[in-house]
Task: structure prediction
Amino acid sequence: MTAEIRADARLFESLRLKGLALPNRLAVAPMTRISATADGAATATMVGYYERFARGGFGLVITEGVYTDQAYAQGYTGQPGLSDLTQANAWRPVVKAVHAASGRIFAQLMHAGALAQANRFRTDTVGPSAIQPKGMQMRVYAGQGRYRMPCAMTAKEIAEAVAGFARAAKLAYEVARFDGLEIRGANGYLLDQFLTSYANRRTDAWGGGLENRIRLSVEVARAVRDAVGDSVPVGIRISQAKVNDSGHKWAEAVEGATAIFGRLANAGLDYLHITQSEAWRPAFEKDELSLVGHARRMAPSLTIIANGGLHDPARAAQVLSEGADMVALGRGALANPDWPRRVADGRPLQPFDPALLMPLGTIKSCER
Result:
């Protein structure tokens, strides 16, 4: 098996992202781990978990989705936050540990919207429209039954959500000392809900055509940029699939990808983090480009991070050839926190063990 692991030199080339020096093109993708305290503070267990990836050779670590306000943003019991000074200070040991291991770490800012399963600040949920989300709550994150029926957000609540992203970004950079910020616009959470036509039936400036539905993502991107200034790396994670609708495709297909990536390319962002189940596959029927390829076409000056089934080094190298600048690993990193060092040395990779996410997707002792 060792003979089959051949490192592509491009994976280990250095990269500069908005002036931030990264030692290689390998990142850890954001993964929900519900291992914070009840009041949303990062723990010593989380310090060890994130530090291990940096020690294993990943140039960049992106945190799990971190809730941004004390209204409707929280999605899960045990989810960490960046909604106040106490939570921001609790992240500092995590950041310091990653830095001590020669890594860099970005905070991913997330608002769950209508997919909130547990929120210590509220018992109700909100979304773009009063439409019950598809599917069932995720048991791996302590959910049970159907998602609740959300209330349609008012203009004031939308403005407050945008402001929450900005405040969390400022706390992440100025207090916790993260190296950069990622906005979660993917996987069915609030920003993605506004983008999705079946979840967004609004008739105001936040709904209707695609230009209006992508508006919230653009406004959040600009608010985060304004909050942290021009020197801080800021990106957004984008997907078609959702945690509650894994087969979803943008109804506008290629035309939609052109519009979405075109708007995001001019929103003050430095990178796009593109995720799909298998990042190298064509994104739409009768079109040969992957979603990474469409992002590269419409955002030639931005850094592109690809995520999805890229634990095979050959696949990781393939997406670099198709336009990605970096590769982000999720389950491949859980199974191999030292993936970069293993691949560089030609050592075998461990298969993913589903027990790492059972019965709950918490950080297990074997990962520390």
In short: The chain has one domain: 2-367. The first strand starts at residue 15 and ends at 17. The domain at 2-367 is CATH 3.20.20.70 (TIM Barrel). The two ends are 26 Å apart (CA to CA).
